[in-house]
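hey team, just a heads up i'm posting the complex here instead of the shared drive bc the drive is being weird again. everything in one block, sequence lines first with there labels, then the predicted structure for the whole assembly after. its two chains so it's a bit long, scroll down
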Amino acid sequence: MDTLRIFVFTASCAVVAVLLALPAATGLGWLLARKNWPGKALFETMTTLPLVLPPVATGLILLDALGRRGWIGAWVWSCFGADIAFTEKAVVVAMGVMAFPLLAGSARAAFEEVPRRQEDLARTLGLSEAQVFRRVSLPLARRGLLSGALLGYARALGEFGATITLAGAIPGRTETLASAIYSRLQLGQDDSILPLLLLSLAAAFCLVWVSQQWLRPPRGAR
Amino acid sequence: MIRLDFEGVRVRQGAFTLRVDGRLGAGTLGLSGKSGSGKTTFLELLVGLRPPDQGSVRLGGRVLDDAAQGLHVAPRKRKIGYVGQDADLFPHLDVRRNLLFGAARASAGAPALGSVVPALGLEGLLGRGVQGLSGLSGGERRRVALGRALLSGPEFLVLDEPFGGLDARARSLLRDSLKQLHRRFRIPWILVSHDPADLRGLCEKTFSIRGGIVSGI
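-- predicted structure starts here --
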């Protein structure tokens, strides 16, 4: 029962994290694919950082900003009297931040695949830039966006370093699949690890399977 | 009737420069030129996808581009229908939705689906779903693209090598469709073709581009 509760909590937090990060990642992916601006390379590097930084380091940076004495955490505390660090919100934030580079990278690749001619044609047919995005770019990039969302979700589901640093692994509150496996390993509770491991494996397998098989462009498609 | 005025227009693209000066005026215009001569750049200039680096372009009395004033009318506001060489149809939409793609923004008095479909012989294609798009022949794709451009209510059409890669029968069908369109809707066009017979048969006047310089206008 505890295993199922941990899985549902982790899966729900990952859904919320991806849903919150997806619009911004999609927008950023489109900007990176279609626009040039001064400092674009720097911006690109910064958004990729969570992918290459040790996750614990990312967690520490987040803790510094979102802890009660951090510049965001202190503001949230003074306005709403609520903590972010070591709560469920921290789990969502850590997952979202760690999934963001994957989401934005996939979105960028998906928009780069959309033929510019199709967007130009839509412009000559009377569509505004927002309409071109909604009626041409977005539908044509949807496979790549969905595939990226699934991979980002898988990344969020397995997140450990940033989550444990920012949210801890408080049983019944912020304990996720990865942190539960780690805690049980430390406590020598080998019997309770197996169901968690199997659930993690099954979830990861399904996500990668769907992403690679169902969302792959049809053979011969551009 | 198209009346286009070009004043000192220069469009630079790397080492290549397109130069256009003068006036184009006719109901149907034909454009010829070798590959790489600047035809596509010229057409992109017309439809607003490539603003000029210098000079101005006017359609009728309306200024479309004026580099000195920093004025550039966006493609969506130009009312110039474009049918490209590849007749790109939107692959996520069925034939009907492709046809109606720009129709919602067309002004009153623009051709309606009910009159465009028979004029282009598209009755048999309307029921084709998204999957059916890949089964369309080159000629059918171009007629759908032509109908889509027409339904957006353009003042004139830009047809970039519409006969390229078509067999004799498809060419003949498309030629007939164009003549039918002109008779029915009096829609002016600029048609690009390598084939002098196409230009003679479908255009009142012709002009050409060589090495980026537009002549005959």
